[in-house]
Amino acid sequence: MFGWQPKSIDEGPVVTAECRACGGAAPWHLYSVTMWISLFFVKVLPTGVEHWLRCAGCGDGMPLSADRNELIRRGDPDDDPTIIGWIREHQRGDMDPGGPVLPPSQSDDQL
Question: Which runs of consecutive H residues, i.e. helices, occur in the chain?
Answer without folding.
Answer: 66-74, 80-92
